[in-house]
Amino acid sequence: MSSDNSSPMSRFALARRLAPALALTSAGVALINVLDRPVNLSASGSAGVADIGSSADAGAGQMVTGATVPAPTTTTVTTTTVVATTVPPVNGAPPDTTPAPAPAPTPAACGAKKSTGSTTDIVDRNRVFGTLVVTAKFASNGELCGVAVNFDVWDRKSVQIEQYALPKLNARAKKAKSANIQGISGATAVSRAYAASLQAAIDAKPL
Amino acid sequence: MAPVAPVAKLEQRRPLARPNSTNLTANDLVIVIAAIFAVVTAAWAMTGGWNQVSSGWSHAWRAAASLTGLYTSLFGMVGLTLSARLKTMERAIGLDRLLIWHRIAGDTMGLLLAVHIFTSIPAEMPVRGGFINTVLDFTGREPYMALTAIGSALVAVVVVLSLKDIRNKISYETWYFVHLTVYFGLAASFSHQITLGSMLSNDRYVRLVWVGSSVAIFATALFGRWWKVFGSVARPLHVRTINKETDDTVSVVLGGRNVLRLRGDAGQFVMIRSLVRGQWWKTNPYSLSAVPTTAGLRVTIKNRGDASSATRHLRVGDRVAVEGPYGVTTPEIFGDKRPLFIAGGVGVTPVCALLQRLPSGSRPTVLLRARHENEVAHLAEIRALAARCGGEVFVLSGRTAAMKGKDPFSAKSLVRAVPELSSRVALVCGPTALMFAARKGLREAGLSKDDIHMEMPWW
User: Fold this and answer.
1) B19 inside domain
2) For an interface test with A, which of B53, B119, B134, B178 has the most A Cβ atoms less than 10 Å from its Cβ?
3) Could you tell me if A198 and A178 lie in one domain?
4) B326, B348, B365 — which closes off a domain?
5) Are B204 and B79 members of one domain?
6) Nearest C-alpha of chain A: how many angstroms from B191?
7) Is residue B271 assigned to a domain?
């Protein structure tokens, strides 16, 4: 008796109970396809590098207010990426928002002597993320007064980390006037490579 | 030796082989799990986690994110392993407790997942340029993070739906199928552990061990769980007889050639899937109500929910897939001590089976709780079996409200009703409220934890 009136229901019973699970799964798969837009690494090479290059120009001006450096920085640029900026890497912040406030006349006091450190691998245990080279600038009295870095990394996350960490490391190095600086959270490998390269640059200071 | 079942008249039967015993205990399992957590925590601490904690907020966020990430994953793996129903683990703690642990592991995983997400965001915010950018990166701009975000969302949905109050509002099977999507969720969110987890992406050997064990556990869970289902369907039993026991209970004997493949004992339960149109995708746990023999397994089924009533539509000859028997409340739990059974409702079924296996001098006491005496299934059989081994049976009938506040399971009333109470081993089965009331009373009456056994096949 009860089996008779429940049979049309039970024909769809399984379908009804499966529906939420299937809906959830297919919604999940669809959303993954919509959301998954990883920034293509080879593409980010041009975008990232261009941005960084220009923001280095922009940031250079700001750094001058600190007292020293920059203008030459861009001239020493190889084909690789350069950062010598204190601007935090605010994504999407157009680089032209901080037009260099005429940093042109580099204070003669700083940069009288320059030395380039070793090209150092940014490496964390077995994994190499890229390389960096520190160029140290010294005042005429031999004191470390400014730092510029060239870096070359191969993935997007590293670009972000470098953009974030290197300006801070530059600032710390300038403040400490030595390679004895505290590392940056989340950028241990860069910090280590930076310190090593900077130490090499200081060791090679021209007399 | 052969059990004497006064009611069932079955031809040339002999008890099935007993389930294998194991030296593994619940404590061993806890120790193994704790050891795995300790190793992972140590690895985390040695690869910089510990130094990060004490060196500023952004370091601490990162350390917390990686540790909770590892723990989330571990609890997922523990939960999967528990649900695989591995034979040794089942023999050690019983399927009911295995699945209770499984639920606890799942809940914990959900909590840790939330912590992991809400520590990862502040940890990465400075590097990724603010909250919005971090969230955008974590939901798709970072490779594999779209998979991870959706996978974690699925895991979160499953965890929330498994909260008792919410789960009780939806049909069991609806919940069950949704809860299976957790396989997809866990698999989808695995890859980011390798690409972003610094500890795992940096060391080749650590990575190898982590990926290897994750894949192994996932495969064990999938095959362990579903191979048993496949086996039970491929080698079904058949309905031999159906007897009406009371107004709303029937006893069903499941037999056939395939019963010889099973191992089981009194006090265990089986998962039953009727291979009938419209029923094949549901399983329900039922206690064996007689010692399982070569003639078949007897289960007693109460007309309760939809699946149970459907089981009443079974006809003699129908095919039934049986998983198990599972459970650890076999006659060995009593040792040399006098048994005490406290049962309510359809919980009498394991009592009936266990009484068949007790030695004649064991003098058990059986307390049955029911609204009315004629609602107790197998009452005559229980009385006969108890009398055979010198025991006694009390039926506490009547509505709880009519007892005028006298709790039948308070320590006082238990001590009065049961001689030598403190030197007994008690088995409690029945509705959850009854089990907890009885356990409380027994504890207060001085029984140790180890002497109180409960079987809760509905977890």
Assistant:
1) no
2) B178
3) yes
4) B326
5) yes
6) 13
7) yes
Do both B345 and B292 map to the same domain?
no
List chain B residues with pLDDT less than 70.
Answer: 1-12, 304-313, 399-406, 457-459
Domain end position, chosen among B189, B212, B231: B231
Partner residues linked to B401 by β-bridges? none
Number of H helices, E strands in chain B: 17, 11
Q: What is the pLDDT of residue A10?
A: 58
Give the pLDDT score at A17.
87
Of B171, B202, B313, the CB nearest to A126: B202
Instruction: For residues B315 and B424, state if they share a domain.
Output: no
Q: B172 and B141, same structural domain?
A: yes
Domain of residue B36 covers: 26-231
Q: Are residues A49 and A27 both part of a single domain?
A: no
Beta bridge partners of B369: B344, B396
What are B338-396's pLDDT values in tens digits? Answer: 888 988 877 888 888 988 888 888 888 888 888 877 778 888 888 888 888 888 888 88
Q: Give yes or no for A11 touching B (CB within 8 A).
A: yes
- To the nearest whole Å, the CA of B148 is away from the closest chain A CA by 9
B150 to A88: CB separation less than 8 angstroms, yes or no: no
One domain, residues A21 and A99: no
Kindly state the helix (H) or strand (E) to which residue B340 belongs, with its residue range.
strand B338-344
Long-range contacts of B50-59 (CB under 8 A, 24+ apart): B52/A185, B55/A185, B56/A185, B57/B122, B58/A185, B58/A186, B58/B122, B58/B123, B58/B126, B59/A185, B59/A186
Answer yes or no: do A39 and B154 touch at CB < 8 A. Answer: no
Structure tokens at A81: 């990426």
ipTM over 0.85: no
**Which residues in B lie closer than 8 A to residue A186 (C-beta atoms)?**
58-59, 62, 123-124, 126-127
Nearest chain A alpha carbon to B184: A25
Question: Chain A partners of B59 at a C-beta cutoff of 8 Å?
Answer: 185-186
Beta-bridge partners for A132: A120, A151
List pLDDT tens digits, range A115-167.
888 888 888 766 678 888 898 888 888 888 888 888 887 776 788 888 888 88
The residue in chain A having the minimum alpha-carbon distance to the alpha carbon of residue B134 is A91
Judging contacts by C-beta atoms under 8 Å, the chain A residues touching residue B154 are 24-25, 28
Which of B130, B146, B180 lies closest to A36 in CB terms? Answer: B146
Q: Give residue for tokens 């996978």.
A: B151
Q: Give the separation between CA B241 and CA B298, rounded to whole angstroms.
A: 9
Domain that holds residue A11: 1-37
Is residue B21, in this structure, part of any structural domain at all? no
Q: Are residues B322 and B396 in the same domain?
A: no
